[in-house]
Amino acid sequence: MGLIKKFSTLLRSNLNTWLDQAENPQKLADLAMLEAEHTKKKAQALLIKAQGALKLGEDRIKILRDQLINSSEEQKIQAHVAQIEQEQSINHQTITIIKKGLKALDNRIKLLQNKTDLSTDHVHDTSAFDTFSRIEEKIESSEAQIAALKELFEAQNAPKTSLEEELDALKKKLHKKSEDGIK
Questions:
Q1: Calpha distance 148→146 (Å, rounded)
Q2: Exposure on the CB side of residue 4, measured as CA atoms within 13 A
Q3: Alpha-carbon distance 99 to 9, whole Å?
Q4: Which of 35, 126, 130, 152 could bond 16 through an S-S bridge, CB–CB 3.0 to 4.6 Å?
């Protein structure tokens, strides 16, 4: 029985060492941070394009309204203005969604930077408990990413509220938490 236990311990030790070598948490965190920064740059470029389209639409509306004053084709111009205003509304919504996405990306980048700072002290231990702890951390990290994606998705599909309403809601939550903490 002792021989089987020693062989099992040796096998687990070698397996854990192999897993530690195959997966460098620092490199994974750096890769995730690079991907997040790349996505952020793409989102910023998309935001600039959307804001440019919004500005062009505003300019086109001004030109068409000036033409409306000097033209006899009032219905055609009003229809065109209505179409551009609808496009403007879509552009506003797109810009709002992109800005929320950029905020989420900034938060993710900060989280990854903090994580890489903390993971520089990674110690290789071959016990089963440490292996379980690493797996648990990976699961928690995945759950946090899923929660962030869920929040982003909900933010995109949620009805649009003003910043003041969001601020008031956050103040109420903070006030409620402080009251709960006092009791």
A1: 5
A2: 1
A3: 52
A4: 126
In total, the chain counts a number of residues equal to 183
The amino acid occupying position 7 is F
pLDDT tens series, the chain, 183 aa: 677 877 778 778 777 777 666 667 677 777 788 888 888 888 888 888 888 888 888 888 888 777 777 666 777 777 778 888 888 888 888 888 888 888 888 888 888 777 766 655 544 445 777 777 788 888 877 777 777 777 776 766 655 556 667 777 888 888 887 777 665
Integer Cα distance of 131 and 127 in angstroms: 7
